[in-house]
Write a structure and sequence with these properties.
- The complex is a heterodimer.
- By secondary structure, chain A is α/β, with parallel strands linked by helices.
- Chain A has 38 helices and 27 strands.
- In chain A, strands 12-13-14-24-23-27 form a six-stranded mixed β-sheet.
- Chain B has eleven helices and 13 strands.
- By secondary structure, chain B is of the alpha/beta class.
- The chains are: A alpha/beta, B alpha/beta.
- At the A-B interface, helix 32, helix 35 and helix 36 of A face strand 1 and helix 4 of B.
Chain lengths: ~1000, ~325
């Protein structure tokens, strides 16, 4: 009786699609949603199970939707369920569950994903109210859970930040590069002395990010007019000229604004306080489905006007549906295996699908020559090189046009500022605007002569570089080195003590304004990426300290001014990094870096200069040592030589646990039940007689999977050459002009591509457990062990407890545990270094995780290390929290790692809590001593979070008290209260070390 | 060298890699088992007896049942949590060998001088940069004077700063001969000045302790090893007005100008249960509370009025 009334899933599916289609066809306002600026938006979307037992489709054509009980040949995209049961689950699933289903491989999308998102957008129109209510309910249930976790937590952290910022040390003028600051710590200043910047900060925190359609609209307009695949005249575009001319249109026609009250003109978007650049060829197309729902989602929600939504939906998205990097990758290479791996989220994220711009250009070029000087340089090169081929001519011409684009924008800014100056009633502001106007008439076309000019030029170029490629990547580099000459020359012109003091105040204020400009954007992300990267800002890295090209102490006045602003503002972006060369940089500097870390709780990330220089030298013996000494951190932490290196540092974001799971399952990935890898032996059949047999299997799976990483990225880089060349960026990178090739075409002097491997500690502790339990001590058979993993240790609590308490872990000081880590890091690094990029050069090996350690942990089963299914890995290469209670054991083990295996840097994230008995001065001294020792032992880098467990728990439950509580995730900083729960819990789980 | 039978090896409870409270800088602390005193408030009751003991932490137990199977005396009663019958237990420690979660632990293991030195030498770079080193504590390190002497000597050979925490009840000549040459700093407890009070609460009289303290203090004044007195503030017992006044007067009389006062920390109290001991410290006793800061300031003033500097901890 019941079975006759309950439809089978395939019927249910068809009926669901049909009823949805009927609603659309009957309502004119819904029909209107299918109409774009270039005509009806058409798509055929399929829904099926992987075994094809179930399959239906909707055909969206010319404003009409037809449901089909089969999937047509010309289907654009398919939502695929693993089994019929998954379809049933999906219907009942809340937002959270749906994302989890994707992460766990219960469903996925194939084909032109943007068009699936279009369909999603349409369907969402029907259920907006329900979705809003459901989200409210999710938020409420999460809040209950968080209150439970935080029950009993001490709440004294609520005023902690205020207390910390009130206690500051005084510095001494000891560094040779410090010419002017008597107290380099600038202890007499607080944020209250900078009303303008303080006001900006408050307003930024009180403002929700606003989606902007400006970037996409202007590009779409241009290409509709001028053609994308072919030019108006039918001839093919040169990729660089296509980019440059569209970029010119964008820059010349975008809104030229100065934020009210600002000292720097220019904005990322028409919302000068907090905007989202929606770049439709990278991240932008991914949010098509969510254009109306990301305004009320739990994490990273935005403001979006009706006009913006309509522009994106009707005008921009349809144009870029097939013209985005990810889609080109599939069409150019016939949906390669690598692209399928990418879209299943379980093991590799190919960052090239969204950005290649994580690098530092040579800022000194336009600062010293001005764009005019650089244009002359290009003209001279073209005149000199009679043999220049077509590509070189086009590349250089494109560079010129891109610079013209920047000049046009600057002129528009100057015009706007003049208008505001003329209208200004406040005489102080009027004078300010007149000065800014004067500056805009100079830079960036002419060389900068003052600090204000230099900063204004850098800010305009920063915006331009982001808009040219991806607004997530270009970095400011060694800002203290770049700006010191201007600060110094400005100070020299002043005569009195008073004037100089006032100028120092002005310099701090200018850097403060720059910081607030830099923090006025976020990247637009779709929900599932928000899970992977929640709270993640577009990272703009600023590096201070270290050594000069000649190896001398590089610390100067600007170093301390920048550190002061960092301490006062405690922002998650710009992403601050300090290079420390022990024995060269002073104790004064080291202590200040520690103090700033303590005051902000989470920044800067602190690098051991000697270790990184050693690493880069060993891996790249042919690179000039002076260039290496100039290295900057990029993205999260990765090294790049500014102005001459194209490093695509985050290209392959690799789940190291995946090959281990595949080795345990003879090449099948257990979660996805995908026979992906080579057959390397069966545990059940007893194929592994020794541990070495198993390690070989792991190694082979790794080579296969990481090999796909390389193959895929090399394919994506070819897509970049066609569709995301970067003439402006290339003009700032040697040797692109003389080679006549942009960065994507290998014009840079140094070329590498970056891999980062996630889950190292969980993997190596797992290997240690297998070796000891199965092969050395024979406590359990491999088959039984695997079964215990399969059941997530249920019924095997004794086994799990034994492993956790008796198998030594990395970070405990145990030599066997270290030997395993050493072996794996060398294996991975050797593999990476043996792989070639398409631009010459090799792949690099990194160990930072953004927040993939939470995401990849979610999609991994129970590990032999005792980790339960779905639990986050440790961040970067941080040891397990239970490895040791003694921070020294952690530090010493990490310091022992061979630097040549870490040439794409690491993330070593620990939580330290100062002793309540120590004074501020004692705490800083202790931090500095610990850091000094760690670096002397060879440790490459460390990122401290200086917050105790109670404060984090309280913040989780009561975010209203902690809106700007800053934490380090694994390379980037985020506001704790904006993070996904998984990530918050992972941070709370981090071992709380006493400082000592 | 070699195995001379007259050389007594103490049992070591723990070598704690990183301690913030036991001396200057970053320090590793060696906890010896055994103490001649029997203080009512002892934070480490498992360190009082010289012999090895069995510690059971119910919260760590995962219910594997291996211990029940392994015990030859049937002294472990299954249950959730399981219970150790201390009367039947012969301390053979076979249960410890099979316990997966370390809920059952042996307190006190033999370690040679070299074992200990090997454990702490990796931390030398941290000791050097922070002005830290190794502290001998426990229990009472001077109960095993020869061992302690050899250990301290080896540590000094490694260039490591050494500190001895002692209750002060030892043979003075032995201490001078064996400990003083190899130690950089001495912490001595001055718990209760009054003889009767000390006997009541610590199990023995204090005349030897006071004598040792004064003699060492005198030696310090003449250029010897620095010695710092420390007093634990136990509410209602050692921190009474009478007790504190007596102590301050004692210091003033003998020209001692600095003392450490250590506030009561209640977080150790469930250790009694874990080693199968009973305690008559009532649940309502202020020993269960963190020390009252106002009272501390009152006591501090008492000492400062007598010209004695107070180090708070």
């Amino acid at each position: 009786m019941k079975s006759a009334l309950t439809p089978k899933p395939s019927e249910e599916l068809y009926n669901l699609l049909k009823s949805t289609a009927d609603i659309f066809n009957s309502k004119s306002e819904l029909q209107d949603a299918m109409k774009g600026s270039q005509g009806w938006i058409n798509a055929t979307i399929g829904f099926k199970t992987a075994d094809n037992k179930m399959g239906s489709a909707v055909v969206i054509k010319d404003g009409h939707i037809t449901a089909k009980d089969h999937i047509p040949e010309d289907v654009d995209a398919c939502l695929i369920f693993r089994e019929e049961k998954d379809f049933t689950d999906y219907q009942k699933a809340g937002k959270d569950d749906a994302s989890l289903m994707i992460l766990k491989g219960r469903m996925w999308i194939e084909g032109t994903i943007a068009l699936y998102n279009y369909c999603d957008y349409l369907v969402n129109l029907l259920y907006l109210d329900e979705a809003r209510a459901a989200t409210r309910e999710i938020i409420r249930s999460h809040q209950i859970e968080k209150l439970r976790i935080a029950d009993g937590a001490d709440t004294s952290g609520r005023d902690g930040n205020v207390r910390r910022r009130a206690e500051v040390l005084r510095g001494e003028k000891v560094d040779p590069g410090v010419k002017w600051l008597k107290d380099p710590y600038l202890s007499e200043y607080t944020l209250d002395d900078f009303a303008r910047v303080k006001g900006f900060r408050k307003e930024r925190f009180d403002t929700k990010a606003e989606v902007s359609a400006e970037h996409g609209k202007l590009l779409t307009d241009f290409f509709l007019e001028n053609g994308y695949e072919k030019k108006k005249d039918g001839k093919p575009w040169d990729p660089c000229l296509r980019k440059a001319e569209s970029f010119y249109h964008l820059m010349a026609n975008r809104k030229a604004l100065i934020r009210e009250g600002d000292l720097l003109a220019g904005t990322y978007t028409p919302n000068p306080i907090f905007g989202l650049v929606n770049q439709p060829y990278t991240f932008g197309w991914q949010v098509w489905g969510e254009l109306r729902t990301h305004t009320f989602r739990e994490l990273d929600s935005y403001i979006s006007t009706e006009e913006t939504i309509e522009t994106l939906h009707k005008h921009v998205m349809p144009f870029y549906a097939r013209r985005n990097i990810q889609d080109y990758w599939k069409t150019m290479f016939d949906t390669p295996l690598a692209s399928r791996i990418h879209e299943r989220y379980f093991s590799i994220f190919y960052y090239g699908t969204v950005s290649h711009a994580t690098m530092t250009p040579g800022h000194e070029k336009y600062l010293q020559l001005g764009l005019n000087g650089m244009r002359d340089l290009i003209d001279r090169e073209l005149a000199r090189d009679k043999e220049a081929d077509e590509e070189k001519k086009n590349t250089l011409k494109a560079m010129r046009i891109s610079m013209d684009a920047v000049s046009a924008y600057s002129r528009n800014l100057a015009e706007q500022v003049l208008k505001e100056a003329e209208a200004a009633s406040d005489p102080v502001r009027k004078t300010e605007l007149e000065e800014i106007h004067r500056i805009l008439l100079r830079v960036p076309d002419k060389p900068a002569e003052t600090l204000h000019e230099a900063i204004q030029a850098m800010w305009i170029i920063q915006v331009a570089l982001g808009l040219e490629s991806t607004d997530e990547g270009p970095h400011l580099g060694r800002l203290d080195q770049l700006l010191q000459p201007y600060f110094d020359s400005d100070m020299k012109k002043l005569k009195t003590e008073e004037e100089r003091k006032a100028y120092v105040t002005r310099a701090v204020e200018l850097i403060g304004c720059l910081y607030m400009r830099l923090s006025s954007h976020y990247i637009i992300t779709m929900e599932i990426v928000s899970w992977m990267n929640s709270g993640g800002p577009p990272s703009t890295v600023i590096v201070v300290g270290g050594v000069t090209r000649e190896g001398h102490d590089a610390v100067n006045d600007m170093t301390y001014i920048i550190l002061k602003v960092t301490a006062m503002l405690a922002l998650n972006d710009p992403n601050m990094h300090a290079r420390v060369m022990t024995g060269v940089n002073s104790e004064t500097y080291l202590k200040r870096v520690c103090e700033v870390n303590y005051i902000t709780g989470a920044t800067p990330c602190i690098h051991n200069d000697a270790a990184m220089i050693e690493s880069l030298s060993k891996v790249n013996p042919e690179w000039a040592i002076e260039d290496i000494r100039d290295w900057t951190a990029n993205g999260c932490v990765e090294p790049c030589i500014p102005g001459m290196h194209f490093p695509t540092t985050g290209s392959v974001e690799f789940n190291l646990m995946a090959p281990l799971e595949m080795a345990l399952n003879n090449g099948t990935h257990p979660l996805l039940e995908w026979d992906l890898g080579p057959r390397t032996g069966s545990v059940e059949k007893g194929d592994f007689k020794t541990f070495e047999d198993f390690f070989d299997a792991f190694k082979e799976q790794h080579a296969f999977l990481c090999g796909q990483g390389v193959i895929g990225n090399n394919q994506i880089e070819q897509v970049h050459q066609q569709h995301m060349p970067s003439p402006l960026m290339s003009s700032l990178v040697d040797d692109c002009i003389s080679e006549g090739r942009g960065v994507t075409r290998g014009g840079a002097r140094y070329n590498t591509s970056g891999i980062t491997s996630i889950g190292l500690t969980d993997v190596t502790d797992s290997l240690s457990a297998i070796k000891r339990m199965v092969f050395d001590e024979k406590k359990i058979s491999f088959k039984e062990f695997k079964e215990a993993l399969h059941y997530n240790f249920e019924g095997h609590t004794g086994l799990r407890a034994w492993i956790q308490n008796h198998v030594p872990k990395f970070g405990s000081g145990d030599p066997d545990a270290f030997a395993m880590v050493d072996r794996v890091t060398r294996m991975v690094a050797d593999f990476a270094h043996s792989q070639k990029t398409i631009r010459g050069g090799h792949y690099t090996s990194g160990w930072w995780s953004m927040n993939y350690h939470a995401v990849y942990g979610r999609v991994s089963g129970a590990s032999p290390s005792g980790r339960l299914a779905g639990e986050a890995f440790t961040p970067g290469l941080t040891p397990q929290p239970s490895a040791s209670n003694n921070i020294m054991d952690n530090l010493l083990d990490v310091a022992k790692l061979a630097p040549e295996t870490l040439d794409n840097n690491i993330a070593f994230n620990i939580r330290v809590v100062p002793s309540p008995k120590d004074t501020h001065e004692q705490t800083i001294a202790r931090m500095a001593q610990t850091l000094q020792t760690f670096f002397e032992q060879g440790g490459m880098q460390v990122q401290f979070i200086m917050l105790n467990t109670d404060t984090l728990k309280d913040a989780m439950a009561h975010p209203e008290y902690y809106p700007d509580l800053l934490v380090r995730i694994s390379g980037y900083c985020a506001y704790f209260t904006q993070l996904h729960r998984d990530l918050q819990l992972e941070i709370i789980r981090r071992n709380e070390f006493g400082l000592g | 060298m070699g195995s001379d039978k007259s050389f007594k090896r103490p049992l070591v409870i723990d070598v704690k890699g990183n301690s913030l409270d036991d001396g200057p800088g970053t320090r590793s602390v060696v906890f010896f088992k055994g103490c001649p005193l029997d203080c009512y408030w002892c934070q480490n009751p498992e360190s009082k007896r010289v012999e090895a003991e069995l510690l059971f932490d119910g919260e760590k137990c995962v219910g594997s049942g291996e211990c029940v199977k392994a015990c030859p005396e049937e002294a472990i009663e299954p249950g959730q949590p399981l219970r150790v019958n201390r009367d039947k237990c012969t301390l053979c420690f076979q249960c410890v060998d099979v316990c997966p979660s370390t809920a059952l632990e042996r307190v006190g293991r033999e370690m040679s001088v070299e074992d200990i030195v090997k454990k702490v030498t990796p931390y030398k770079p941290f000791f050097k940069n922070t002005g830290g080193g190794v502290t001998l504590s426990g229990g009472e390190p001077t109960l095993f004077m020869d061992f302690a002497s050899r250990l301290l000597k080896r540590l000094r050979e490694e260039g490591i700063h050494t500190l001895v925490e002692t209750c002060g009840l030892f043979n003075f000549e032995s201490f001078t001969e064996k400990i003083l040459p190899h130690v950089n700093l001495i912490y001595m407890d001055m718990k209760i000045v009054n003889y009767e009070g000390h006997k009541r609460w610590c199990g023995v009289g204090n005349e030897k302790i006071i004598e040792n303290f004064l003699r060492l203090h005198e030696m310090w004044r003449k250029g010897g090893v620095e010695i710092k007195p420390r007093t634990p503030l136990i509410p209602g017992i050692t921190d009474t007005d009478d007790s504190m006044r007596a102590l301050a007067r004692f210091y003033k009389e003998h020209g001692i100008t600095q003392t450490a006062l250590m506030k009561n920390n209640p977080t150790w109290l469930n250790k009694f249960e874990k080693i199968g001991l009973k305690t008559d410290i009532a649940k309502e006793s202020p020993i269960h509370e963190f020390y009252d800061q106002e009272r501390f300031e009152y006591i501090r003033k008492m000492f400062e009025d007598e010209g004695i500097e107070v180090l708070e901890s």
